[in-house]
Amino acid sequence: MSSAAITRNVVVRNPQGLHARPADLLVREASRHQAEISLEKNGYRVDCKSILSLLTLGAQCGTEMSLYAEGADAEQAVTMIAELFENGFHEMEQAE
Q1: Of the candidates 2, 30, 63, 75, which lies 20 to 30 Å from 84 by C-alpha distance?
Q2: What is the pTM of this model?
Q3: pLDDT for 33-56, tens place per residue?
């Protein structure tokens, strides 16, 4: 098991941005992993296991951020969380 830091760029795709519902989904996914996971926007980094911290990012649709994870399951954590971003936190199908 690797404990190297993993980084991936993500983009908020859902129309309403990173509001309470997608932030809750992100926290739930992050909490399933042992790795330390954070998001960074314009040099401001927050813990992905804290919903209030995530909401302070004010990430709107189109916002680009860096996703970081470090720990035993960092790669899996980044993959799963990046998938949430890519799928628009499942809000894209609701908007249609």
Answers
A1: 2
A2: 0.89
A3: 999 999 999 999 999 999 999 999
